[in-house]
Each structure stands twice: as C-alpha cells, then as structure tokens.
Amino acid sequence: MNQACAESQSPEAAGTQLLPAELGALYSAHSRAIYYLALRFLGDPQKAEDATHDVFLKALRHLDQFRGQAAARTWLYRIAINHCKNMRQAWHERHVLPGSDSDFCERAAGGDSPLRVLETKELGARIQQALDGLGAEYRLLLLLVSDQELSYEQVGALTGQSADAVRGKLFRARKAFAALFAKTE
Amino acid sequence: MNQHDKFSAGRHQEQAGEAQAARAGVREFQTAEELLRHDAAQTAVPPEIVRRLSQSIAQSAPARRPWWRKLLG
Q1: Mutate which of B28, B35, B55, B57 to test chain A, going by most A C-beta atoms within 10 A?
Q2: Is any Cβ of chain B less than 8 angstroms from the Cβ of A14?
C-alpha cells in the first residue's frame, strides 16, 4: 500500500492488512458500529474492546454460515447482541437492579423536549449515565435504531418483535432517555 | 415507514437541529437517536482490537501437517 492510500484510509481500516482479507473488509466497514453498540450497551470501554474482538473472531469462524444469508451489519449485530447479553448476565445484572422500562416511562416527565448539549468531554459520560438508567431492552432498541443502516424491520428482527412494536417501544424509550439525560446536567 | 422515509425524516430533523445549534452555540438533538449518532461519530475504535484479533487468529491457526503424515497419506 502506498503512503497516499494509507493516509486516506478510515481509522477503522488501519491495521486490517494484518487480518484475513474477508475479515479485514468486514472490520473496516462495521467495527465502529459494533464497538459503539458494545461500549454503550456494556458501559465499559475495556469490556467493549473485548466484546468487539470476540465478535469479529466469531464472525471469522462462522463466515461460511453468513455468506448470502443476511446483510453483514445485521449478522454482526446479531452476534454482538448475543455476546454482550451473555457478558452482562455474567457480571452486571448481579449487582444492578433497575426498575423495568415501562415503570420508568410511567414516571418520566418532560421527556418530549429536545436534548440540548454543550460540546464537552463529559457528553459521552452523560449519555452512558442515561443509558445505564434504562433497562436493557430500551437501551438496545435506541442503540440499534440510531444506526441509519438499519430499518425498523431489521431492528425488529434483531430484537424478536415486529416493526410496529419497535415503533411503539421507541416512543417510550426516547421519552425515558430524555428524562434521564436531563437529570445528568 | 420504510427505510428511505426513516432516513430522510431523520436527516431533515438533524439538519434543522444543527442550524439551530449553530445559532445558539449549543448542539440540539431532536431525538435520542440523533444524540447517539453524534456520539458514535465521535467514538474511536481502539486500534488494539485489530492487533489482538491478528494474534488470536495466528494462535488458533491449525497446526501444520507433519511431513511424515503427508508421505503416509
């Protein structure tokens, strides 16, 4: 690879020449989405790094199952969701007992106003704090819907529900998130 | 709403929010998804992951077949 190519590549593509070609291509295109899902779902950068590593390793081992069956992004998300849920079950849910999403939504007030933020380094921490206050279902739903490559139908398929159910829960999830985010100021 | 509608509606909302934010000196997001998209765009993937993946793949590669097995078939 010449220098001009190396300089123009995305940060995610850096170093992917060390990987088998098929995995390198998947990693360049999808690692940011997978890492972000893991980071905000698990709430821990080190665990997100571990999860992203494990997801792509699993993907490599099961590449034969993937070919031609689904969009690569959806397939990787499915692996990531299962993996992150297993990780959370192993450690997080033993210590944290949040109320259910629907309970919280009933109590949430003022969740319809826009989310105003100053650009600060603490923004990520505020977002994480708000997401941590949600139950796993709403958190996952918001993270998946925020990916513009996924349709509501695909989000529904990934979370085991219809697109209409996604739309209904999304409304409540947004409201709950906005109320929690406002409390982080 | 199909995928295209979802994207164009979201994009329109984002553009309106961005224009307002520029005027006020703060960013404004209409929905949680917009905020999360912004956050995702700011989040870098640690470069260590590629190195770890490369090492894991090298370690899990099957052992080479010994020469005497090749001779015996």
Answers
A1: B35
A2: yes
Q: How far apart are CA A175 and CA A182, in angstroms?
A: 11
pTM for the model stands at: 0.77
C-alpha span between A92 and A114 (Å, rounded): 31
Cα atoms found within 13 Å of the Cα of residue A41, Cβ hemisphere only: 29
Domains and CATH numbers, chain A: 12-97 (1.10.1740.10), 98-185 (1.10.10.10)
Q: Where in the sequence is the domain holding B15, given as residue range(s)?
A: 3-72
Contact A149, A46 (CB under 8 A): no
Q: What is the pLDDT of residues A22-47, one digit of tens each?
A: 899 999 999 999 999 999 999 999 99
- What is the number of other CB atoms lying within 10 angstroms of the CB of residue A141? 27
Half-sphere exposure of A55 (CA within 13 A, CB side): 34
Residue A17 scores a pLDDT above 90: no
More confident residue, A113 or A35: A35
Q: Average pLDDT over chain A, rounded to whole? A: 85
Kindly report, residue by residue over A57-96, the tens digit of the pLDDT: 999 999 887 766 568 999 999 999 999 999 988 876 566 6
Q: Within an 8 Å CB–CB cutoff, is residue A94 touching chain B?
A: no
* Residue A168 forms contact with B (CB below 8 Å): no
B22 to chain A, minimum CA–CA distance in Å? 11
